[in-house]
Amino acid sequence: MKHFLSITDMSKNEMQVLFKTAARIKKETRAGKSRSDLMGKTLVMIFEKPSLRTHLSFEIGMTQLGGHGVYLAPTDIGLGVRESVSDVAKVVSRMGDGLMARVFAHRTICELAANSRVPVINGLSDWEHPCQILADLFTIWEIKRELKGLKLAFIGDGENNVAHSLCLAAGLWGMHLVTACPVGFWMKEEVVGLGASLCKKSGGSITQLSDPDAAVNKADIVYTDTWVSMGDESEKAKRLNFFKPYQVTTKLIQQAKPNALFMHDLPAYRGNEVTSEVIDGVQSIVFQQAENRLHIQKALLVHLLKH
Ligand code: NVA
Q1: Is the CB of 23 under 6 A from ligand 1?
Q2: CATH class for domain 131-289?
Q3: pLDDT grade for 159, boundaries at 50, 70 and 90
Q4: Residue 307: its pLDDT value, please?
Q5: Which residue of 132, 134, 163, 279 is most buried, as measured by CB atoms within 10 A?
Q6: Could you tell me the distance, in angstroms and rounded to a whole number, from the CA of residue 45 to the centre of ligand 1?
């Protein structure tokens, strides 16, 4: 039995297989063809935080595979308060065929996995957002066909789930990740260490800077995320102030390669981390990224739950 808690829980080869499956599934879905891979199976979805894409893509994905998704809202079960995390995992995994959870602390998803009899999927924790980055890699692959050697500039909050999973993905795929983040918001050392050790094998690199202009120089991809992640709301005023010089603008993106792609995991706070001009511009692939959550996660669900 496999869990998907970190982007490193899947090898590059496994991801390549998933990309091909997802591309096939995407075509079929758009042609209105239904599948029955997960007929009679149920995915239990536990949320400690709000969600649009993760909730929709997993629930719709299960329906389109012939199965079912059960949504448990933050107040429904009181994870770790009304009932211990381990007890929840034991009960859920005696009924459901898979468990997807969006949690505050990464240790919660690890504890769910440690006590589960069925595969557990990380639908975002404070440490990683592997489903998003899997969809992002699939999106880049759809457009470029090759990930190795690409320069990806990440601008904004490095000390967070999205940047962390990108760092590890760069290590797995041999991409060159350059981040520009204010001092104090750099990626966690543990993640950078792991990313760097993966880079030794793959030929990728991880560079952390504070200057957005230097980071985007000749980049193939410019990526940003919210400055105020879920759970960071109490620091909002401080963060908006610190991050001001890190907005992705047309002027900034012009320093990347002429055909550079703009990516964002959404939700986007227009006028903060990105201008409307950039997110609605021709280089932006944010809605392709969002749609691909559905297709790649269907491939992931089949990979993990079908036996
Ligand atoms: N870093 C963001 C990602 C949202 C999908 C957050 O954790 O809120």
Answers
A1: no
A2: alpha beta
A3: very high
A4: 78
A5: 163
A6: 17
